[in-house]
Design a protein that fits this description.
It contains 13 helices and 20 strands. The protein folds into 3 domains: 185 residues, 3-Layer(bba) Sandwich (FAD/NAD(P)-binding domain); 107 residues, no CATH class; 93 residues, Alpha-Beta Complex (Polyamine Oxidase, Chain A, domain 2). By secondary structure, it is α/β, with parallel strands linked by helices. Helix content is 33%, strand content 24%. Helix 10 packs antiparallel against helix 11.
Length: 444
């Protein structure tokens, strides 16, 4: 029998591992979190590039991220102080023209979306009518599709026009699934649209953080875990699992054996695969993890003069490399813009200088009156997310594994959500709750 006071080992200090550790600590369970890097946050953290201190990619939260927002409140973050919260407002530009404007009023659901689509500028009456019919389909299905297909196939089957796909559905698909509509999972896309647009009008709100990513979760979560008796160690990596008779017996931390009977692996799927592959009990899991593909995200940060600003905290860009341009003024970074390029494409063959030049040219076409940027830096995450393709559900592992005491957390696990901050947090809380349930079932 496992001692209730034996610490649960959490490997990985990204948002999945932090959410798992904080959930356990809340219930008085001793936790030991180890992170291989010298900084918490994983792919959503603050990094320094010379004189630049920037987030490791531009992230946007929405009101539907219930688990993430609840976790932040749990660890002491005051949401009203930490976010600029605005109703859904999508504005896209192509060259010097605004080609789409969609604003959701403060009305009960689904009337907020109905009014937004009816009054959307840049879409014809036919476009808007068909988009409304597609929305009604999503609401009737409550975000559930029995069979998966690509988003492109789903949109074609529901008569979505080329203009609506290009200006509305494809940018939303890239922003949420980081996968092009021709490949992306319709099941996951429909679920995301339902949760963001059809359950409650506040779910579609856009949340822009005041400050960097570290202040949203990594820093307060560290204080929360340690204040409840947990320990957090940086520069420590799980290098091997000790498994006997399909039960976890221990791990190796940087080659040193450590007893452990409860472990949440909140590491990347590649690291998880390397740890699971040597063990026969985890052969199926390892096989599925080996089938995952990945998509990149590039963020180009450009520093303009401090009085340079967008009319909105973020706008879309149609017809170029960039899909979104964020004004970082709300984060206390006046004049700094973050240009986001989701998924694979020709930009991945450019070096940083070429990419910066191409992005500068695109922004200059949208905002020709802006001065030249004073500085620019590139953040490339070549494996930012798993490729959220049709049929991906068959490869995503559950939190519990065939090895007793071993659990998985990470945005790639079976949360039903794409690889977002919300997906990571959901996975960590799910793994922690399964440990809590197992502990309650054990005889005393």
């Amino acid at each position: 029998m496992t001692s209730p006071r034996e610490p649960v080992l959490v490997a990985g200090g990204g948002w999945a591992g932090l959410s798992a550790a904080a959930t356990l600590a809340q219930q008085g369970v001793p936790v030991r979190l180890v992170e291989a890097a010298r900084q918490l946050g994983g792919r959503a953290r603050r990094v320094r590039l010379g004189d630049f201190a920037v987030d490791n990619g531009q992230h946007l939260l929405i009101g539907a991220y219930r688990e993430t927002l609840a976790l932040m409140q749990q660890v002491g973050v005051t949401l009203n102080d930490r976010f600029l919260r605005t109703p859904l407002h999508l504005e896209s530009w192509q060259d010097r023209r605004r080609v789409l404007r969609l604003r959701a009023p403060r009305l009960p659901e689904p009337f907020h979306l109905l009014v937004a689509l009816l009054h959307a500028r840049g879409l014809s009456l036919r476009d808007r009518w068909r988009a409304l019919r597609f929305g009604a389909f999503i609401q009737r299905r409550r975000g559930e599709l029995a069979d998966d297909c690509t988003v492109a196939e789903l949109l074609h089957g529901h008569g979505q026009t080329a203009a609506t796909v290009r200006m509305l559905w494809e940018p939303l698909c890239l922003a949420t699934l980081n996968t092009p509509v021709a490949e992306a999972s319709a099941q996951i896309f429909v679920r995301v649209l339902y949760e963001a647009l059809f359950r409650f009008h506040g779910d579609s709100d856009l949340l822009f953080a005041h400050g960097d990513l570290g202040t949203l979760l990594p820093d307060p979560a560290l204080d929360y875990i340690e204040s409840r008796g947990g320990t957090v160690q940086l520069g420590k990596r799980v290098t091997a699992l000790h498994v006997d008779d399909a039960r976890l017996r221990g791990v190796e931390l940087d080659g040193e054996p450590v007893p452990a009977t409860r472990l949440i692996l909140a590491v990347s799927p590649e690291q998880c695969l390397a740890l699971c592959r040597p063990h026969a009990a985890l052969a199926t899991l390892a096989h599925d993890l080996a089938q995952l593909d990945y998509q990149p995200i590039c963020t180009v940060y450009l520093q303009y003069s401090p009085d340079t600003r967008l009319p909105r905290p973020a706008i879309g860009i149609v017809g170029g490399l960039c899909q979104w341009l964020f004004d970082r003024r709300h984060a206390g970074e006046a004049g700094r813009m973050a240009a986001v390029i989701s998924a694979d494409g020709p930009h991945m063959d450019m070096d940083n200088a070429e990419l910066i030049a191409a992005v500068r040219e695109e922004i200059a076409r949208v905002r020709p009156h802006w001065p030249a940027p004073r500085d620019a830096r590139v953040i490339r995450e070549k494996r930012a997310t798993f490729a959220c393709r049709a049929g991906i559900a068959t490869l995503r592992p559950a939190a519990a594994t065939p090895v007793a005491g071993l659990y998985l957390a990470g945005d790639y696990t079976d949360t039903g959500y794409p690889a977002t901050l919300e997906g990571a947090v959901r996975s960590g809380r799910l793994a922690a709750r399964q440990i809590l349930e197992t502990q309650q079932e054990e005889p005393t």
